[in-house]
Here is the input.
Amino acid sequence: MHSGTTINGVCRLSDRGLIRARGPEAASFLQGQLTNDVLTLGVGTARLAGFCSAKGRLQASFVIWKAVSDEYLLTCPASIFAPTLKRLSMFVLRAKCKLSDAADEIELYGVAGAPAQAWLEGMTAWHTRQRGAATVIALPDAAGLGRCLVAVAAGSELDVAGAPTMSLDTWHWLEVQSGIVTIEAQTVDRFVPQMVNFELVGGIDFQKGCYPGQEVVARSQYRGTTRRRTFLFDCETTPQAGQDVFIAGDAGEAAGTVANGAPRPDGKGGSALVEVRLAALASDDLRLGSTSGPRLRRAELGYRVPLEAEPAT
Here is the structure.
């Protein structure tokens, strides 16, 4: 897929924010706010989770892990960090939980390809472990490559044995290839979780208790009302989050929205995760930005997406 381009290195994730949730009621507070189960999240595991509005629209998506007893770390794009922290803080009320910005204390790195293998030995996706002063979070593979998120104290040396530096654009391309949508500033309040395949990639626990928007999310699942899904596409240009997608020659409303986009490492255009009406896939001629814009060429995701609304069994 990357046409011989070597993807191999370490990237400082300077575009990520980091929330610390600390206190004896941190787990129960987060349990009542996020789409995934936090109460059973122990040291050694991480999860994908969404934060929804009362109408079930995603305001943010997180990778969350338990740092130590009564302390959790949640990372999201810096572009939505401040409003997300503010909105979450509004719900703390009397809960014994303090939310704070941890980005000045902890730095995040993305590691992929050969340098990731030593860090990931014996690990499977969404597990964590300590390696010296670093916390290693195993992420799902992307484009056939192992990946991990590494959290270290600010100013610490990251032991990567001379691994090459990888660009943020390349890391973002791998994120797109993983099929896991990240909510960005341009897509806040645009998607119900199932529209971006969140239940297919482990971002929703339907057995946990209530959270904002839970009734909408559950109704979409159990009534089979999801008629929009997210798929992977390549394009001769680089799609941008929030761009509309149209059916060629159809003057009607947009058929979908770019959730995430990134340039390809081989320099041949870009790739994108695009949320689209299932009925629009039949045209096989989706265009970026306008009905005559660059064509989007469907690529293969690493998991199956239902091509029609399917009620849960």
